[in-house]
Amino acid sequence: MNDTATLEAPVAARAKPKVILCEGNEAAALGVALARPDMVAVYPITPQSSLVEHVAKLIADGRMDADIVDAEGEHSVLSVLQGGALAGARTYTATCGPGLAFMFEPYFRTSGMRLPIVMSIVTRDGITPQSVWGGHQDAMTVREVGWIQLYCETVQEVLDTTVMAFKIAEHHDVMLPVNICLDGNYLSYGASRVELPEQADVDAFLGDKDVNWHVALDPLRPMAVDPLTGGAGGKGPATFVRYRKGQCRGMQNALAVIEEVHADWARRIGRSFAPLVEEYRLDDAEFAIMTLGSMTGAAKDAVDEARAAGKAVGLIKLKTFSPFPVEALLKSLAKVRALGVVDRSVAFRWNCGPMFQETLGALYRLGRHVPATSFIGGLAGADLTVAHFHRVIADTEALLTGPAPTTPVWLNEND
Amino acid sequence: MYEVRFHGRGGQGSVLASAMLAAALVEEGRYAVSIPSFGFERRGAPVVSFLRTSEREIRQLTNIYHPDCIVCVDPTLPRSVDIFAGLKPGGTLVQATHRPLAELEIPDTVATVGLCDAVRIALEIFKRPITNTLMLGAFARTTGVVSLDALKRALEDSDFRDAGLAQNMTALERGYAETTVHQLDRRAAA
Fold it and tell me: What does pTM read for this prediction?
């Protein structure tokens, strides 16, 4: 799959890529078009709406050859795509917030049926209180439903990851649906300089379409899909466990596949992104702050300023949140003596952020106590600025000498 | 890093202007990021958009609190919004107004002012008070941060077509040509 001999020319010898300015939502749509899906189904919801409008326009303009279903709601959107995927189609949709909540029943079924559907979540905070702005609460709420979830830092990463998501989802060792999470508002509407990959390079990267070789609906070969399974008798329990173990195995397999696919993208397209965990100025750091998504840029700028002021701080960013990259993360965590984790959502049961909660689970395997603080900010569109990250850095540095707080620090509490 | 904050009202196209300026800057080989403020986009309500540009990659995806330049595409907005909040000392104001400089209330942080009677010109070109592309021309004239040519190329790459494209091209050119630029040296020194 990763045979570099099939490359037409080394990246350095290629023509300069076409550079455009576009929003994250448009970048996602352009990534979808490059991946040549057979079928998309859409229902608009803020802040995702302009993404599916761009997809619809690309199809209407003849720049994308896919069937589009304008469904009556998100539950139907994903149900329609399940039919398409079962028939062997490459499929795509996007949603967020209340739309994701409304599609929850088929959302769970998609991963159980091992359908490699790709869906962008233009992340939005949970309601209520009523809000239409960004936050990771929607994607975090469904983090245990068997979908792979990749969080993007920049508009360029949105475009590139959207293409890569299809290759990860359809890999025979994985066969799981993938969410590309892009932050509502700051990425969805933030317009940045973006380099467009060549269609021929993307075609070579994705290779021949090979979707649902395992179930593909065929009138000449009738079969039941997703029959009643489980219960306490007969082959029910063993069959159900086989399904669940298969899903867990696919998730674990995805860790290596995500790395492979990112490496292949870097070789063929010439742009690389840390596939699981990114380290920034971590090697000689005493303590680290941990980030997710578009907040990371401001956090890196704050780390640079703190370094210039003599603070031994580094940064750890997660790109892959599901499956949780425990081993890769532990390699990074082993380098520091204190940690501050910044979440853009809330883990209500634990009174902290979800990434903080999951990182504590990973830290148990480190065999050494690392004091850590949960920071929660950027909820419902609130800004996470360099100044906020200076507070995160100062509070995390304090863990080296003082006690760790048992409650989260709410970064926008006084904004 | 050079930071611009656009002020306007919903429907006047200030968010589009911010994105078009970013496209023009990218056209010139620079890095640029444009982020609109987030609200319910009612017509007439004050809206804000943020633009950063740099020779190097821009990592911060945040709002702007201490801009180098303020572009206000609506002449009445300064009465209801503190458009100067956080402006860096020695900063620039590009304002749509028919009033002369002496009649404007301008704080000491402002060192350079570009004035354009954009509503009158827009009514002549579009028959509607849409001032956004005019004020991009005014921005180019006042600051020199972007060239008029790059703005024209960005406009050609935009969704404007036919008559709309021709009108906006005229608006860019007239905004550039009909802007007066004032240096307020005594204010800056004060």
Answer: 0.94
